[in-house]
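User: Predict the complex.
Assistant: Input components as received:
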Amino acid sequence: MGHHCCSKQKVKRGLWSPEEDEKLVKYITAHGHSCWSAVPKHAGLQRCGKSCRLRWINYLRPDLKRGTFSDQEERTIIDVHRILGNRWAQIAKHLPGRTDNEVKNFWNSCIKKKLIAQGLDPKTHNLLPASRSLLHGNGAANPSNNPAQFHSNGATANGGATTPFTISSPTKAAAYDTVTAPPPPEMSAPAMYDVVTNPAGMFTGHDQAAAAAIPAGYPYPDNGGGVLMSFRDQNAGLQTSMDFMNGSSSSSSMDHAAGMPNGNGFSQGMGAAFMDVTAGMWTTAVDSGMCAGIEVVQQQQQPLPPLQQPQGLVQGEVIGPPAVMNGGGAAADKGMDMMDVSSVYGSAGATAFDLELMESCGLFCGGGGGAGNAMEQLQWDC
DNA sequence: AACAGGGGCAACCGCTTGCCG
DNA sequence: TCGGCAAGCGGTTGCCCCTGT
């Protein structure tokens, strides 16, 4: 059975011959591919347009890298996959010269097995049950064999089953070159981000590079720019924190649970914020104030400049378990009244926060300042 | 040397999405 | 608004090659 587009045609299938490749390359080079369905006819190929397109995209494009994946690329794939799941095209965007098909095959043939061998579920990146029991056993586990150390740059996990998580794409490293405030000397290692996932699917983070990427003082121009994000799972009663250290003593905390000691909804006038594993997320979320249900509390009493006070927000309302929050205000203006936090943080041990939801919230969208922030590298493609 | 089994990878299938008339 | 078409995308298939017996 052929493609829809070529079911009426007599087309060749299977592997491409060098002659066919040459014809296709010549034609595309000379004329481009404005319409793939017309390409085989004009190029003199007995193939359907879809097949031509696939061949060009996956193998004949001049900008393809080919060859084996580097360790760096492998780490990038793992890291982004943890966030995005099997969205191979999105993952491939973080690997210049690689195609989605290539990434997918590499994942299925190599990475997946490696993760399993390390006791990690390749789907969730959580520890497999067997490995959890080992970790929670008598403590005699050899740290070098501890899957929790996988790709960790040394940050200490907060106990329990953990899933270290790193982002270290080449483009990310380049982006951090733009950082004006350098990280502390001991943090000058290449951009590595560790998110430690606890059993409830929460995560903590400690991203020195991302912290450094935050403009000094942002979102509070008067302070040093350090940001501490704190998360609490209302149901599980768990709290984790994330600090964007920037060599500053000031910090802010973010908490999605109303009734936290630091605040009550949006009473302090801050926009709702969401965390991201990268710095750009912070800017976007705080600026837009779109995501209801998470408050940002300024621990140091420094007034916000008027222009940075998100307008139109109302106090978040916790409807009660399951954690559903009614943001209203700006969020409602964007057409999202309700936000199921459980789907974001992943209840019942699910590790992946709901990227789709956050994307739909527009949390990943918007300009991070054009300085090549990490979110731009992640190309959420809103 | 022949064969079987497994792994890797190129290509295909079919669903979804976006665009345009 | 709807339908058709093309492109995008993820899952799956099947071929080829390598390795072990």
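The CA atoms of residues 370 and 376 of chain A lie 8 Å apart.
Let me know if you want any component modeled separately.
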